[in-house]
Design goal:
The chain is an alpha/beta fold. The protein is built from 6 helices and 5 strands. A hairpin with a 2-residue loop joins strand 3 and strand 4. Helix 5 crosses helix 6.
Length: 173
């Protein structure tokens, strides 16, 4: 997925979409997987889970999901960021508001969504493009307009903060 340099780093600018230079970095494995590139949005899983786990925890979760998938269970689409600030940079307050609005009532166009949220069309378009780059928002052509939609019923965000554990292979002194 492309790096996006348009997200703020400080809380005062948390609702702005064009005032920062921080990059959003998704795990390489996730970015290279192209998990849903060739799927019809109608066939997407009902849940999107956005996490900020360590590489080890994310790998273990992926193996657990694989086992559940092989057992015939529906598994969520997972996007993981190892750095919590990358997750925060992606899900600004304004982008969360945007997602909620789209999921509540699908707009007929980007312009209609901008009017609904009382924001300018360019900032809505820019936020939608960032969310589309991460496979969260999709577009459907409706004449000359692009209709944004979210193919998931639920978006879960998970951030674990815990005390580091000593390595299992470290011998006691």
């Amino acid at each position: 997925m492309p790096d996006q340099p348009n997200t703020p780093d400080d809380a005062d600018d948390a609702n702005s979409t064009d005032s920062g230079t921080e990059e959003i970095v998704m795990d390489d494995i996730e970015a290279e997987a192209g998990f849903l590139e060739d799927r019809d949005p109608e066939d997407y899983p009902s849940v999107l889970r956005i996490t900020s786990d360590s590489e080890q925890a994310h790998r273990q979760d992926a193996l657990d999901r694989l086992d559940r998938w092989q057992a015939g269970e529906e598994i969520p689409h997972v996007i993981n960021f190892q750095n919590p600030s990358d997750l925060r940079a992606l899900l600004t307050d304004r982008r969360v508001e945007l997602l909620r609005s789209i999921m509540t009532e699908r707009p007929d166009s980007i312009r209609q969504l901008a009017e609904r949220l009382d924001r300018d069309v360019k900032s809505i378009h820019d936020d939608l493009q960032v969310l589309a780059d991460y496979d969260i928002v999709h577009f459907e052509q409706a004449g000359r307009a692009k209709r944004p939609f979210v193919p998931y019923d639920t978006i879960e965000v998970s951030l674990e903060i815990s005390t580091p554990r000593p390595a299992d292979d470290a011998a006691p002194a």
